[in-house]
């Protein structure tokens, strides 16, 4: 920064502040010193008597990462001043637009200016379309490219991965390897790892890990951190720990990712231990770190530890707790059954509680069968977010557990009147490069009849070992037999039944579910793990459950 200011002073003293060659060097110096130099650069830029494409390009490029809105404003000024953009302008304009999630009309302008065939512009368009969620648009650009470089492939893989097309991302990565002279770099592999993480496919994750080792790609801190997260999200936090221990230099994000992984796997005391080890290294935890630690305390019932961590945010680190941190404390108290304390905490929060916090408290009241508080919270949530299907379902379940079927029916009628649809439960499991999907109560799977027959036989066998379907949350005031039928075909049960039919070896059954696992399915999984001597891992909306020999890693505290 000081160098840039000194250079500016020298230009003025020598009378070269308007010399085109000197100004070019000066602008390049500003770009090299970004982002600290940018406000001064804009001030100087505004007083330059003549502006050409190079000057605009330099400033647009300097702002593209740290201040994308200024990049877009500079591009607009460039157009107003009649300065022609070129193929060096658009890659950085597109980068800025991608960060701001704007620029739907950029492609048409590029074609109009005759720059649509430039590979750098095309790469920028792929990234832009990806940020806008337009996978089809990105794929159109990619498919029409006569030549592609590593950035082209990496950008398209990233587009797939970031828009939940995990298998397509991995398929494209395999296609890329068939192209000569293209070796994946760190950016490519980060997108591949992200795709595997979203799929929760452990075997694919191990293949990617081995591929990185086999190709000699340097395990940077970013790659190592991504692998820790990948293994955690694929259900193997022990592998996350191995990667973590092998990373020589760790930043706050590396520690935070491991803490989060331990937290969602129910290994709360380990997460807390890692947090203290991180503090001993001299690193300062950030808001995301604290969120992970508080989640760990909540899942493990560590109420006192959670309080101490929450209070340390302000007292030890001078940071203001975020609404997410307050939500974690509400969850911590609610899970522990301290409902009145949780309600009082929400009522006295210095920031206005959002619908998520009230929803968290509502869920705790349902778990502990506090109907009176549940009804109060539903009123609060309705004021903030009246169309969330989960709130109606939760309140409906409270009435079901209390046997108040008329009130339960009223809740369902309200959903219909307000046109609030209930999100269907679905689960899937991976088999190689195949995904098997199961939808609750549906005949979605091609072997649906066979799976259901086998599932019914499993349930009949489990009854002999003490399993009793938990029917309180069934949808209607009907006979027990009908309630059990409604529970029998929940998606995770269908997935496990299919796995037992399909996989005759001793592999762990890994299921991913979009909703929180229900109490009955949780009991079912424990019994199945014992009866069939199989390990079952269920990743639901909130956490992982590891079932083995009749027990769950959550210790029934969830």
The strands making up the biggest β-sheet line up spatially as 2-1-3-4-5-6
- Helix fraction, binned, reads 55-70%
Total count of strands: 6
Supply the number of helical segments.
29
pLDDT under 50 segments (min length 5)?
Answer: 475-484
Termini separation comes to: 53 Å
Strand content: 5-15%
Counting helices, strands and paired strands, the structural category is: mainly alpha
Query: What about the largest sheet?
Result: 6 strands, mixed
Rounded radius of gyration (Å): 28 Å
Using the alpha-carbon principal axes, give the shape: globular
Q: pLDDT average, as an integer?
A: 86
PPR repeats: 118-152, 251-285
Keywords: Repeat
InterPro entries: DYW_dom, E_motif, PPR_At4g14850-like_plant, PPR_rpt, TPR-like_helical_dom_sf
Family: Belongs to the PPR family. PCMP-H subfamily.
């Amino acid at each position: 920064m000081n160098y840039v200011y000194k250079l500016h002073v020298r230009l003025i003293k020598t009378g070269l502040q308007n010399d085109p060659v000197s100004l070019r060097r000066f602008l390049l110096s500003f770009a090299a010193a970004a982002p600290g130099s940018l406000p001064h650069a804009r001030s100087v830029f505004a007083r330059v008597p003549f502006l050409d494409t190079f000057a605009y390009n330099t400033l647009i490029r300097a702002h593209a990462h740290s201040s994308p809105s200024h990049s877009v404003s500079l591009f607009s000024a460039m157009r107003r001043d009649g300065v022609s953009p070129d193929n060096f302008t658009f890659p950085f304009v597109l980068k800025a637009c991608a960060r701001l999630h704007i620029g739907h009309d950029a492609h048409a302008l590029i074609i109009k200016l005759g720059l649509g065939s430039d590979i750098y512009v095309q790469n920028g368009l792929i990234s832009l379309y990806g940020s806008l969620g337009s996978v089809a648009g990105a794929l159109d650009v990619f498919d029409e490219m006569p030549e592609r470089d590593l950035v082209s492939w990496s950008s398209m893989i990233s587009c797939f991965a970031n828009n939940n097309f995990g298998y397509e991302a991995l398929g494209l990565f395999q296609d890329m390897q068939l192209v000569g002279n293209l070796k994946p770099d760190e950016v490519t592999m980060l997108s591949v790892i992200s795709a595997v993480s979203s799929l929760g496919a452990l075997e694919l994750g191990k293949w990617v890990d081995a591929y990185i080792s086999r190709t000699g790609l340097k395990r940077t801190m970013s790659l190592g951190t991504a692998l820790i997260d990948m293994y955690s999200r694929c259900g193997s936090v022990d592998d996350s720990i191995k990667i973590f221990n092998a990373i020589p230099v760790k930043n706050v994000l590396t520690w935070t990712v491991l803490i989060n992984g331990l937290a969602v796997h129910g290994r709360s005391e380990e997460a807390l231990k890692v947090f203290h080890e991180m503090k001993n290294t001299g690193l300062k935890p950030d808001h995301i770190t604290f969120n992970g630690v508080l989640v760990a305390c909540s899942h493990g019932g560590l109420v006192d530890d959670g309080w101490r961590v929450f209070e340390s945010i302000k007292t030890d680190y001078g940071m203001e707790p975020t609404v997410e941190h307050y939500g974690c404390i509400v969850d911590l108290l609610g899970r522990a059954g301290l409902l009145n304390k949780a309600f009082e905490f929400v009522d006295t929060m210095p920031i206005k509680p959002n619908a998520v916090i009230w929803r968290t408290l509502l869920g705790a009241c349902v778990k502990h069968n506090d109907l009176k508080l549940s009804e109060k919270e539903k009123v609060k949530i309705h004021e903030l977010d009246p169309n969330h299907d989960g709130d109606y379902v939760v309140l409906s379940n409270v009435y079901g557990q209390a046997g108040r079927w008329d009130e339960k029916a009223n809740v369902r009628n309200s959903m219909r009147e307000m046109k609030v649809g209930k999100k269907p439960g679905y689960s899937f499991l991976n088999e190689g490069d195949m995904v098997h999907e199961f939808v609750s109560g549906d005949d979605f799977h091609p072997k649906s009849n066979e799976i259901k027959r086998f599932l019914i036989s499993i349930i009949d066998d489990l009854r002999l070992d003490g399993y009793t379907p938990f029917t309180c949350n069934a949808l209607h005031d009907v006979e027990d037999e009908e309630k059990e039928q409604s529970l029998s075909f929940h998606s995770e049960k269908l997935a496990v039944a299919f796995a037992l039919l399909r996989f005759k070896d001793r592999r762990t059954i890994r299921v991913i579910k979009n909703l929180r696992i229900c109490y009955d399915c949780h009991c079912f999984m424990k019994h199945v793990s014992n009866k069939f001597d199989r390990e079952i891992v269920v990743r639901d909306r909130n956490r992982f459950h590891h079932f083995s020999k009749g027990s769950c890693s959550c210790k029934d505290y969830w």
